[in-house]
Structure prediction request, 314 residues.
Amino acid sequence: MIEVEGLTKRFGTFTAVDHVSFTVGKGSIFGFLGPNGSGKTTVIRMLCGILQPTEGTARIGGHDIVRDLEPIKEIIGYMSQKFSLYDELTVNENLIFAGKLYGLSGRALNQRREEMIATTHLEPYIDRRAAQLSGGWRQRLAMACSLMHRPSVLFLDEPTAGIDPVARRELWDLLFEFAGKGMTLFVTTHYMDEAERCDHVGYIYLSKLIVCGEPDELKKLPDVNPPGTRRLDVTCDHVTTALHAMHEMPGVRTATVFGQSMHLLVDETVTPTQIEEQLRKVGVAHVEIHEMGPSLEDVFVQLSAKHAAERKAA
Ligand code: ADP
Ligand code: MG
Prediction:
Protein backbone atom coordinates (compact mmCIF):
# COMPACT_ATOMS: atom_id res chain seq x y z
CA MET A 1 0.00 0.00 0.00
CA ILE A 2 2.94 2.32 0.67
CA GLU A 3 6.09 1.91 -1.40
CA VAL A 4 9.00 4.24 -0.73
CA GLU A 5 12.22 4.16 -2.76
CA GLY A 6 15.26 6.34 -2.06
CA LEU A 7 13.13 9.15 -0.64
CA THR A 8 15.31 12.17 0.15
CA LYS A 9 14.65 15.70 1.37
CA ARG A 10 17.22 18.44 1.58
CA PHE A 11 16.59 21.84 3.12
CA GLY A 12 19.39 23.92 1.61
CA THR A 13 22.55 21.97 2.33
CA PHE A 14 20.99 20.03 5.22
CA THR A 15 19.72 16.53 4.42
CA ALA A 16 16.68 15.88 6.63
CA VAL A 17 15.74 12.55 4.99
CA ASP A 18 18.46 10.53 3.29
CA HIS A 19 17.52 7.81 0.75
CA VAL A 20 14.84 6.14 2.80
CA SER A 21 13.19 2.99 1.36
CA PHE A 22 10.51 0.71 2.80
CA THR A 23 7.12 -0.81 2.01
CA VAL A 24 3.96 -1.16 4.09
CA GLY A 25 1.37 -3.83 3.28
CA LYS A 26 -2.37 -3.26 3.22
CA GLY A 27 -4.04 -3.62 6.61
CA SER A 28 -0.79 -3.56 8.52
CA ILE A 29 0.55 -1.21 11.16
CA PHE A 30 3.95 0.29 10.48
CA GLY A 31 5.67 1.89 13.48
CA PHE A 32 8.17 4.61 12.63
CA LEU A 33 10.65 5.43 15.39
CA GLY A 34 13.70 7.58 15.87
CA PRO A 35 15.05 10.41 18.04
CA ASN A 36 13.65 13.93 17.68
CA GLY A 37 14.89 15.70 14.57
CA SER A 38 15.71 12.47 12.73
CA GLY A 39 13.26 13.11 9.88
CA LYS A 40 10.03 11.26 10.79
CA THR A 41 7.65 14.17 10.26
CA THR A 42 9.44 15.16 7.06
CA VAL A 43 8.86 11.64 5.65
CA ILE A 44 5.16 11.84 6.51
CA ARG A 45 4.82 15.32 5.00
CA MET A 46 6.34 14.09 1.74
CA LEU A 47 4.06 11.04 1.66
CA CYS A 48 1.04 13.27 2.24
CA GLY A 49 2.04 15.60 -0.60
CA ILE A 50 2.72 18.60 1.64
CA LEU A 51 6.45 18.64 0.84
CA GLN A 52 8.13 17.83 -2.48
CA PRO A 53 10.87 15.21 -2.24
CA THR A 54 14.31 16.34 -3.43
CA GLU A 55 15.03 12.85 -4.74
CA GLY A 56 13.44 9.42 -4.81
CA THR A 57 9.91 8.21 -5.35
CA ALA A 58 6.97 6.96 -3.33
CA ARG A 59 3.62 5.44 -4.21
CA ILE A 60 0.51 5.09 -2.11
CA GLY A 61 -2.03 2.59 -3.36
CA GLY A 62 -0.04 2.61 -6.61
CA HIS A 63 -0.31 6.41 -7.06
CA ASP A 64 2.85 8.45 -7.35
CA ILE A 65 3.05 11.05 -4.57
CA VAL A 66 4.23 13.80 -6.92
CA ARG A 67 2.31 13.12 -10.13
CA ASP A 68 -0.98 11.70 -8.77
CA LEU A 69 -1.61 13.92 -5.78
CA GLU A 70 -5.37 14.21 -6.29
CA PRO A 71 -6.23 10.49 -5.92
CA ILE A 72 -3.78 10.29 -3.01
CA LYS A 73 -5.57 13.05 -1.11
CA GLU A 74 -8.72 10.94 -1.26
CA ILE A 75 -7.18 7.75 0.07
CA ILE A 76 -5.04 9.18 2.86
CA GLY A 77 -5.80 10.70 6.22
CA TYR A 78 -3.22 12.65 8.21
CA MET A 79 -3.25 13.29 11.91
CA SER A 80 -0.43 15.76 12.37
CA GLN A 81 1.92 16.08 15.32
CA LYS A 82 0.59 19.51 16.24
CA PHE A 83 -3.07 19.58 17.16
CA SER A 84 -5.08 20.40 14.08
CA LEU A 85 -8.35 21.04 15.91
CA TYR A 86 -10.32 24.26 16.21
CA ASP A 87 -10.32 24.99 19.94
CA GLU A 88 -13.32 27.32 19.76
CA LEU A 89 -15.47 24.75 17.96
CA THR A 90 -17.25 21.91 19.68
CA VAL A 91 -16.52 18.25 18.99
CA ASN A 92 -19.52 18.13 16.70
CA GLU A 93 -18.51 21.29 14.84
CA ASN A 94 -14.94 20.07 14.38
CA LEU A 95 -16.24 16.88 12.78
CA ILE A 96 -18.60 18.77 10.50
CA PHE A 97 -15.85 21.20 9.52
CA ALA A 98 -13.42 18.36 8.71
CA GLY A 99 -16.10 16.57 6.67
CA LYS A 100 -16.90 19.71 4.67
CA LEU A 101 -13.22 20.22 3.90
CA TYR A 102 -13.38 16.85 2.17
CA GLY A 103 -16.49 17.78 0.23
CA LEU A 104 -19.04 15.92 2.34
CA SER A 105 -22.44 17.51 2.85
CA GLY A 106 -26.07 16.79 3.73
CA ARG A 107 -27.01 13.27 4.68
CA ALA A 108 -23.63 11.74 3.81
CA LEU A 109 -21.86 14.19 6.13
CA ASN A 110 -24.31 13.56 8.93
CA GLN A 111 -24.09 9.80 8.60
CA ARG A 112 -20.31 9.81 8.60
CA ARG A 113 -20.22 12.16 11.59
CA GLU A 114 -22.43 9.74 13.53
CA GLU A 115 -20.31 6.77 12.52
CA MET A 116 -17.14 8.46 13.69
CA ILE A 117 -18.74 9.48 17.00
CA ALA A 118 -19.80 5.88 17.56
CA THR A 119 -16.40 4.46 16.58
CA THR A 120 -14.43 6.77 18.83
CA HIS A 121 -17.03 6.90 21.66
CA LEU A 122 -17.11 10.70 21.58
CA GLU A 123 -20.87 10.83 22.22
CA PRO A 124 -20.72 12.28 25.78
CA TYR A 125 -18.55 15.16 24.59
CA ILE A 126 -20.16 16.24 21.32
CA ASP A 127 -21.15 19.70 22.61
CA ARG A 128 -17.90 20.37 24.41
CA ARG A 129 -15.38 22.76 22.93
CA ALA A 130 -12.21 21.07 21.72
CA ALA A 131 -10.18 23.30 24.05
CA GLN A 132 -11.91 21.71 27.06
CA LEU A 133 -11.14 18.10 26.20
CA SER A 134 -8.40 16.10 27.93
CA GLY A 135 -5.39 15.06 25.84
CA GLY A 136 -6.72 11.58 25.15
CA TRP A 137 -10.11 12.82 23.97
CA ARG A 138 -8.54 15.53 21.84
CA GLN A 139 -6.50 12.86 20.10
CA ARG A 140 -9.60 10.78 19.49
CA LEU A 141 -11.34 13.79 18.02
CA ALA A 142 -8.33 14.60 15.83
CA MET A 143 -8.35 10.99 14.68
CA ALA A 144 -12.09 11.07 13.97
CA CYS A 145 -11.62 14.29 11.94
CA SER A 146 -8.82 12.72 9.88
CA LEU A 147 -11.09 9.74 9.10
CA MET A 148 -14.20 11.63 7.98
CA HIS A 149 -13.52 10.97 4.28
CA ARG A 150 -12.94 7.21 4.81
CA PRO A 151 -9.25 7.07 3.91
CA SER A 152 -7.67 3.66 3.41
CA VAL A 153 -4.27 4.81 4.66
CA LEU A 154 -3.89 6.80 7.87
CA PHE A 155 -0.73 8.64 8.90
CA LEU A 156 -0.50 9.44 12.61
CA ASP A 157 2.40 11.56 13.83
CA GLU A 158 3.05 10.88 17.53
CA PRO A 159 -0.64 10.38 18.29
CA THR A 160 0.03 9.28 21.88
CA ALA A 161 2.63 11.89 22.87
CA GLY A 162 1.65 13.41 26.19
CA ILE A 163 -1.47 11.37 26.89
CA ASP A 164 -1.98 9.08 29.87
CA PRO A 165 -1.36 5.30 29.74
CA VAL A 166 -5.03 4.34 29.74
CA ALA A 167 -5.86 6.74 26.89
CA ARG A 168 -2.78 5.46 25.08
CA ARG A 169 -3.95 1.86 25.35
CA GLU A 170 -7.45 2.80 24.20
CA LEU A 171 -6.14 4.72 21.20
CA TRP A 172 -4.13 1.66 20.19
CA ASP A 173 -7.17 -0.57 20.55
CA LEU A 174 -8.82 1.70 17.99
CA LEU A 175 -5.84 1.45 15.66
CA PHE A 176 -6.01 -2.35 15.80
CA GLU A 177 -9.71 -2.22 15.08
CA PHE A 178 -9.04 -0.09 11.98
CA ALA A 179 -6.20 -2.33 10.79
CA GLY A 180 -8.49 -5.33 11.27
CA LYS A 181 -10.89 -3.72 8.81
CA GLY A 182 -8.14 -3.37 6.21
CA MET A 183 -6.92 0.15 6.90
CA THR A 184 -3.17 0.70 6.56
CA LEU A 185 -1.59 2.64 9.43
CA PHE A 186 1.66 4.52 9.56
CA VAL A 187 2.40 5.65 13.12
CA THR A 188 5.33 7.50 14.65
CA THR A 189 5.98 6.97 18.34
CA HIS A 190 8.63 7.12 21.05
CA TYR A 191 7.05 4.33 23.08
CA MET A 192 8.68 0.91 22.82
CA ASP A 193 5.59 -0.95 24.01
CA GLU A 194 3.70 0.58 21.07
CA ALA A 195 6.49 -0.37 18.67
CA GLU A 196 6.36 -3.97 19.94
CA ARG A 197 2.72 -4.14 18.88
CA CYS A 198 3.35 -3.04 15.28
CA ASP A 199 3.54 -5.54 12.40
CA HIS A 200 6.65 -3.80 11.10
CA VAL A 201 8.89 -1.13 12.54
CA GLY A 202 11.45 1.20 11.03
CA TYR A 203 14.07 3.14 12.94
CA ILE A 204 15.37 6.39 11.46
CA TYR A 205 18.55 7.84 12.91
CA LEU A 206 20.30 11.00 11.68
CA SER A 207 18.09 11.08 8.56
CA LYS A 208 18.80 7.48 7.54
CA LEU A 209 16.57 4.45 7.99
CA ILE A 210 18.99 2.13 9.75
CA VAL A 211 16.71 -0.85 10.27
CA CYS A 212 13.29 -2.02 9.19
CA GLY A 213 11.38 -5.27 9.69
CA GLU A 214 9.17 -7.32 12.00
CA PRO A 215 10.00 -6.80 15.69
CA ASP A 216 10.78 -10.50 16.21
CA GLU A 217 13.07 -10.62 13.18
CA LEU A 218 15.00 -7.56 14.28
CA LYS A 219 15.69 -9.13 17.66
CA LYS A 220 17.49 -11.98 15.88
CA LEU A 221 19.87 -9.77 13.88
CA PRO A 222 23.54 -10.73 14.37
CA ASP A 223 24.43 -7.09 15.16
CA VAL A 224 22.03 -7.21 18.09
CA ASN A 225 23.35 -10.55 19.35
CA PRO A 226 27.15 -10.34 19.10
CA PRO A 227 28.82 -13.80 19.11
CA GLY A 228 30.18 -14.78 22.51
CA THR A 229 27.68 -12.68 24.46
CA ARG A 230 24.36 -13.12 26.19
CA ARG A 231 21.72 -10.87 27.66
CA LEU A 232 20.69 -11.04 31.30
CA ASP A 233 17.87 -9.49 33.23
CA VAL A 234 18.95 -8.68 36.78
CA THR A 235 16.43 -7.80 39.49
CA CYS A 236 17.85 -6.58 42.80
CA ASP A 237 17.71 -3.94 45.55
CA HIS A 238 19.33 -0.54 44.99
CA VAL A 239 19.31 -0.59 41.20
CA THR A 240 21.37 2.62 40.92
CA THR A 241 24.23 1.23 43.03
CA ALA A 242 23.98 -2.06 41.16
CA LEU A 243 24.15 -0.31 37.80
CA HIS A 244 27.30 1.49 38.81
CA ALA A 245 28.90 -1.79 39.94
CA MET A 246 27.96 -3.45 36.66
CA HIS A 247 29.50 -0.64 34.61
CA GLU A 248 32.78 -1.31 36.48
CA MET A 249 32.70 -5.07 36.07
CA PRO A 250 34.97 -6.63 33.40
CA GLY A 251 33.04 -8.57 30.74
CA VAL A 252 29.91 -6.44 31.10
CA ARG A 253 29.49 -4.69 27.74
CA THR A 254 26.34 -2.70 28.44
CA ALA A 255 24.09 -2.22 31.46
CA THR A 256 20.80 -0.33 31.34
CA VAL A 257 18.03 0.18 33.86
CA PHE A 258 14.56 -1.06 32.86
CA GLY A 259 12.07 -0.15 35.57
CA GLN A 260 12.93 -2.27 38.61
CA SER A 261 15.60 -4.31 36.85
CA MET A 262 18.74 -4.03 34.74
CA HIS A 263 19.41 -5.42 31.28
CA LEU A 264 22.99 -6.54 30.76
CA LEU A 265 24.87 -7.55 27.64
CA VAL A 266 27.78 -9.63 28.95
CA ASP A 267 30.56 -11.86 27.65
CA GLU A 268 29.53 -15.51 27.78
CA THR A 269 32.31 -16.10 30.29
CA VAL A 270 30.59 -13.92 32.91
CA THR A 271 28.51 -16.17 35.19
CA PRO A 272 25.48 -15.26 37.31
CA THR A 273 27.48 -16.22 40.40
CA GLN A 274 30.19 -13.68 39.53
CA ILE A 275 27.55 -11.00 39.09
CA GLU A 276 25.95 -11.84 42.44
CA GLU A 277 29.34 -11.67 44.15
CA GLN A 278 30.15 -8.33 42.56
CA LEU A 279 26.80 -6.96 43.73
CA ARG A 280 27.17 -8.34 47.24
CA LYS A 281 30.48 -6.44 47.53
CA VAL A 282 28.61 -3.13 47.09
CA GLY A 283 25.84 -4.14 49.49
CA VAL A 284 23.18 -5.11 46.94
CA ALA A 285 20.99 -8.04 48.00
CA HIS A 286 17.96 -9.96 46.67
CA VAL A 287 19.57 -10.58 43.31
CA GLU A 288 17.67 -12.57 40.69
CA ILE A 289 19.20 -13.24 37.30
CA HIS A 290 17.51 -14.60 34.18
CA GLU A 291 18.74 -15.01 30.66
CA MET A 292 16.64 -13.03 28.18
CA GLY A 293 16.36 -12.08 24.53
CA PRO A 294 16.87 -8.49 23.36
CA SER A 295 13.98 -6.04 23.58
CA LEU A 296 13.15 -3.76 20.69
CA GLU A 297 14.78 -0.94 22.63
CA ASP A 298 17.98 -3.03 22.85
CA VAL A 299 17.78 -3.43 19.07
CA PHE A 300 17.55 0.30 18.42
CA VAL A 301 20.18 1.24 21.02
CA GLN A 302 22.62 -1.33 19.65
CA LEU A 303 22.10 -0.44 16.00
CA SER A 304 22.24 3.32 16.44
CA ALA A 305 25.49 3.01 18.46
CA LYS A 306 26.96 0.95 15.63
CA HIS A 307 25.74 3.43 13.03
CA ALA A 308 27.15 6.40 14.98
CA ALA A 309 30.53 4.65 15.28
CA GLU A 310 30.59 3.93 11.54
CA ARG A 311 29.80 7.57 10.75
CA LYS A 312 32.59 8.76 13.00
CA ALA A 313 35.04 6.41 11.33
CA ALA A 314 33.98 7.46 7.81
P1 ADP B 1 11.26 14.36 13.59
O1 ADP B 1 9.82 14.40 13.18
O2 ADP B 1 11.88 13.02 13.47
O3 ADP B 1 11.47 14.95 14.96
P2 ADP B 1 11.57 16.32 11.49
O4 ADP B 1 11.20 15.59 10.26
O5 ADP B 1 10.56 17.25 12.05
O6 ADP B 1 12.08 15.29 12.59
O7 ADP B 1 12.87 17.17 11.23
C1 ADP B 1 14.06 16.61 10.69
C2 ADP B 1 15.09 17.70 10.53
O8 ADP B 1 14.73 18.55 9.45
C3 ADP B 1 15.24 18.58 11.77
O9 ADP B 1 16.59 18.89 11.93
C4 ADP B 1 14.44 19.82 11.39
O10 ADP B 1 14.95 20.95 12.05
C5 ADP B 1 14.66 19.90 9.88
N1 ADP B 1 13.53 20.54 9.19
C6 ADP B 1 12.26 20.12 9.17
N2 ADP B 1 11.49 20.92 8.43
C7 ADP B 1 12.30 21.89 7.94
C8 ADP B 1 12.11 23.03 7.08
N3 ADP B 1 10.92 23.31 6.57
N4 ADP B 1 13.20 23.79 6.81
C9 ADP B 1 14.41 23.48 7.32
N5 ADP B 1 14.66 22.43 8.12
C10 ADP B 1 13.63 21.64 8.43
MG1 MG C 1 8.16 14.92 14.23
User: Anything to note?
Assistant: The first helix runs from residue 40 to 47.
